[in-house]
Amino acid sequence: MKIAIIGAGIAGLASAVRMASKGHQVEVFEANSYPGGKLSQFELQGYRFDAGPSLFTMPQYVDELFRVAGVTPESRFRYQRLPIVCNYFWEDQTRLSAYADAPEFASEVEEKLGVKAEKLLLSLEDSRHKYELSGRIFLEKSLHRWDTWLNWSVVKAMLKIPQFDLFTTMNRVNERMVQHPKLVQLLNRFATYNGSNPYKVPGLLTIIPHFEHHQGAFYPEGGMHHITQSVFELAQSLGVQFNFNSTVEEILLEKGRATGIKVNGTVLPYERIICNMDVFHAYRRLLPHAPQPEKTLRQEKSTSALIFYWGVQRDSPELNMHNILFSEDYRREFELLSQGQVSDDPTVYINITSKHTPGDAPPGCENWFVMINVPYNDGQNWDAIIEQSRTQVMAKINRILGIKLQDLIACEEILEPRSIERKTWSHLGALYGTSSNNRMSAFLRHPNFSQKIKNLYFVGGSVHPGGGIPLCLLSAKIVDELIDV
């Protein structure tokens, strides 16, 4: 078949590999001049930065792309498991290293926080148990087809719904399991992995720590952007044709079927169309005359991010590749986010890839990717927010690390909700499309296929199963299976 893919984000690239591996004729259309969407990179005065996602989990989904193409993954794509997932810091000078090895992490928690190791291990085992019961249902299969629910393994899993903690929150589950406020705060942080609120999101999302502390956190050789580059090159080797600086203007319909696309005024016919564009803009811009799934498109959006890319003229031995500096009042931080505001004491995430790849920064220097959670763009005065947040973030880093960061910054670039939407077409700059705060959110996300337009499919972070690299890759896998049906 002739297949058009709209968008060269990681889900679009994965779809291209899967379709081309089956012998289909695949053509990708990307509005930007480069592949990867959020998963891109840039250089600034000798510092290299991964522009978007900085944490790599579940690498087996990338490896799988090479295997379906008949290529040994290790020959094209290499990565290392990180011994420490993240270093955590609090204002009272408490510091803790989250080791990837669960027993080692539990020992660290007992030593630094006085929480018995067994408590954390039981919490992580609960995370594993939930994933094994529900992960393949909610993440690896379409939730919008009857054959999913008629599968006997799914039926058996659904009989265990009370164990999923769907009717309580992540925060309450963590309070029940570990009690200690700092450890609860640490485990609550995992809600931010899909832009949600731990005080609202269903307890089922306590499955997320399982990915880091049982399966592991990883770093690709060459940086996060190497995920994009390796999959892009794999697609090219399979004969996929890429068209950059090519904005798709419309998905063409005829008698309830998608029949092609219009690009730069030219009509191009295709037998199947896979859309990796944010589903909101896909309907509003590419399908203006099609029935609009208003209930889906108007769901609560996830949070966004304010990122400072700083070239820092300092070696920081107290920091690791991934670091979190916690706010004093985590609940208030999320209450403000839900009101469209930014805390004056935000939790600060610092990613430094030069810890792993020294060439990402000049000698004796580091490339700091510094991020705070902010609401999606709802008309706030972002220029004022950015200026205020920059001052507060620096002050927090200075207090906790005992440095004077403003004297160490050699260069700076900023990414915020407006520029996120402009560069990636993420509606309102929301990083993960729809939030997961509703216990039914997994079912309310847009399906990976159109229920009213035949031959049209959707992948990426704004549709099922959600945002983040692993889930985007799974969306491509689901569509692969749907097109085979």
Give a written overview of the molecule.
It is a single chain. The chain has 485 residues and is an alpha/beta fold. It has a domain at 117-213. The model has no long low-confidence stretch (mean pLDDT 93). The protein has 17 helices and 20 strands. The strands form five sheets. The chain has a seven-stranded mixed beta sheet with strand order 8-7-16-17-18-15-19. A five-stranded parallel beta sheet has the order 10-2-1-14-20, covered by helices on one side. Strands 5-9-6 form a three-stranded antiparallel beta sheet. A hairpin with a 5-residue loop joins β7 and β8 (95-99).
Short characterization:
The chain is α/β, with parallel strands linked by helices and 485 residues long.
Radius of gyration: 22 Å
pLDDT under 50 segments (min length 5)?
none
Terminal residue distance: 14 Å
Strand content: 15-25%
Estimate percent helicity. Answer: 25-40%
* Spatial arrangement of strands, main beta sheet: 8-7-16-17-18-15-19
Global structural class: alpha/beta
* DSSP summary, beta strand count: 20
Largest sheet: 7 strands, mixed
Provide mean pLDDT, rounded. Answer: 93
- Overall geometry comes to globular
Counted by DSSP, the helix tally is: 17
